[in-house]
Structure formats: structure tokens, C-alpha cells
């Protein structure tokens, strides 16, 4: 049973997340030859203030991008 965990910043819609999980499931079915019922996908979301890249939180990065 393949189990995939996706870690990402919060902010996507439920529809976007469901679509991503369906696509990942189909990729595993195609490439690993497993049944879709065997695939488990879990999303771990972090609030934007709890995720950092390049020394700035995603909140800080969004604010800087909005100023440009």
C-alpha cells in the first residue's frame, strides 16, 4: 500500500487539494501497478506564518511581493 504525505503551505482550496490527490493517485496506479483503493494520500498544511523560505516567512514573502 503506497502512502504519500504532501507537506505544503496552507491556502489552497479543497477542490485544488482533491484534484492534486486524484492526480497523485493515478500516477501511482499507472507507474506502480497498484489499485487506487490501495493508495493513501495525506496533506500536512502549515500556516503561512509557520513556513519559511530564504529566511522569510511566507507571510513576509507575500507582503514583499505585494509591494512590487
UniProtKB/TrEMBL annotation:
Keyword vocabulary terms for this entry: Isomerase
MF annotations from Gene Ontology: isomerase activity
Top-level division of the source organism's lineage: Bacteria
Family annotation (InterPro entries): 4-OT-like_dom, Tautomerase/MIF_sf
Gene3D superfamilies: Macrophage Migration Inhibitory Factor
A Pfam family assignment: Tautomerase
E.C. number(s) listed in UniProt: 5.3.2.6
SUPFAM superfamilies assigned to the protein according to its UniProt record, in alphabetical order: Tautomerase/MIF
Segments crossing the lipid bilayer: none
Span of domain 4-oxalocrotonate tautomerase-like: 2-59
Similarity section: Belongs to the 4-oxalocrotonate tautomerase family.
Protein name stated in the entry: 4-oxalocrotonate tautomerase
Native species: Bradyrhizobium algeriense
